[in-house]
């Protein structure tokens, strides 16, 4: 079972993913986390993406797709994958389909957390007080929304056309949202 947890910046994908991967035994792939690890380790990739990420821009499709391809290929025995923060462009979505096909796998569901923008901004500013993330400041947050609307939101249509898109209310108690996600996952299993 392979799932994409989709949503705008600050929607709670990371929080929900932690519980989902435990419950369903999925291999968790967050491109944001992986890129932050690359930056912390000061790898070639890390150095390349540092400026873009701190300003709230999107890293190139080539970089994130090659990371995902490597991680999927290295975990083929896993019960399934949980993608967080990927795909973020239609090109990435197309390439993910190719990668999955190459391994005789497919995406079973795209769970989209829906949260109004004013709540998202408030959450991220709050997180910025403790996250230590260079991109949790108001200028970078605004730029992340511009990128989201322009490049990431069209990914929703891509999966709607495939019949894979499931909307989930992302406002409320963390446990309540988790239960709603689980209900949908149990439905498709
Ligand atoms: P959030 O969803 O809160 O914005 P993420 O951890 O998912 O946080 O991503 C942080 C940053 O990492 C993004 O703003 C972007 O610069 C980069 N990034 C993560 N995933 C991708 C991706 N799939 N494509 C391009 N850039 C990405």
Topology overview:
Layout: E1 3-6, H1 13-24, E2 27-30, H2 31-40, H3 44-55, H4 61-73, E3 81-84, H5 90-102, E4 109-114, H6 117-131, H7 138-152, H8 154-162, E5 165-169, H9 174-188
Helix pairs in contact: 1-9, 2-3, 4-5
Bound molecules: adenosine-5'-diphosphate.
Q: Count the domains.
A: 1
Annotated CATH topology: Rossmann fold
Shape: globular
Distance between the termini: 7 Å
Pick out the low-confidence regions: none
State Rg. Answer: 16 Å
The named CATH superfamily: P-loop containing nucleotide triphosphate hydrolases
Helix content: 55-70%
Which labels suit this protein?
alpha/beta; single chain; 189 residues; 5-stranded parallel sheet; Rossmann fold
Structure description:
With 189 residues, this protein is an alpha/beta fold. The chain has a single domain, classed as Rossmann fold (3-Layer(aba) Sandwich), CATH 3.40.50. The chain is built from nine helices and five strands. The protein has helices at 13-24, 31-40, 44-55, 61-73, 90-102, 117-131, 138-152, 154-162, 174-188; strands at 3-6, 27-30, 81-84, 109-114, 165-169. The chain has a five-stranded parallel beta sheet, sandwiched between helices. Helix 2 (31-40) crosses helix 3 (44-55) and helix 4 packs parallel to helix 5. The radius of gyration is 16 Å and the shape is globular. The N and C termini lie close together (7 Å). The site of adenosine-5'-diphosphate (ADP) has 18 residues, from helix 2 and helix 3.
């Amino acid at each position: 079972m392979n799932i994409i947890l989709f949503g705008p910046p600050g929607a709670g994908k990371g929080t929900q993913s932690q519980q989902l991967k435990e419950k369903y035994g999925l291999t968790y792939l967050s491109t944001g986390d992986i890129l932050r690890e690359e930056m912390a380790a000061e790898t070639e990739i890390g150095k390349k993406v540092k400026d873009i990420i701190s300003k709230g821009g999107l890293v190139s499709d080539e970089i994130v797709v090659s990371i995902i391809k490597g991680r999927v290929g290295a975990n083929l025995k896993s019960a399934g994958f949980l993608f967080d923060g990927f795909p973020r462009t239609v090109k990435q979505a197309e390439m993910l389909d190719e990668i999955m096909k190459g391994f005789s796998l497919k995406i079973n569901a795209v769970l989209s957390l829906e949260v109004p923008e004013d709540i998202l901004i408030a959450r991220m500013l709050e997180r910025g007080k403790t996250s230590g993330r260079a991109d949790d400041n108001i200028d970078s947050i605004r730029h992340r929304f511009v990128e989201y609307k322009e490049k990431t939101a069209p990914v929703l249509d891509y999966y709607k056309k495939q019949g894979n898109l499931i909307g989930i209310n992302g406002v409320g108690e963390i446990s309540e949202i988790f239960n709603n996600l689980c209900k949908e996952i149990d439905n498709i299993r």
